[in-house]
Amino acid sequence: MELYCMTETERKCANLIWENEPIGSGELVKLCEEKFGWKKSTTYTFLKKLCGQGLFENQDSCVRSLIGQADYDQGRGEQFVKETYDGSLPRMIAAFMRKKKLSRQQVDEIRRMIDEYEEP
User: Fold this and answer.
1) Contact 17, 23 (CB under 8 A)
2) For residues 69 and 53, what is the distance between their CA atoms, to the nearest angstrom?
3) Is the pLDDT of residue 120 over 70?
4) Which of 61, 70, 90, 110 has CA atoms 20 to 30 A from the CA of 40?
5) The whole model's pTM is what?
6) Do 61 and 24 meet the contact criterion of CB atoms below 8 Å apart?
């Protein structure tokens, strides 16, 4: 399943929901007004869009995610690698390393991740 690619502003709204869920839609309106200066109609416009994309639901004035933040981020990352590098993670890393040298800490972290993946 291909995940919807949120705009930067939609992502701000989504992050707020993920951080506070389950959250009443009225409380979400208040938070968006405090944090972003949004009017009620703006919040509901973004909420409706995010719900329409299957990321969240607003049922009985209670907003909750249908897809968690970690799952969303993982799915979008996989889509990016698939679309940009034909699904090849090594090609993505090679492209990244052409312009930027990895630090010893980054190399160690990647090696640790590979080692954990290979463990039975």
Assistant:
1) yes
2) 14
3) no
4) 70
5) 0.81
6) yes
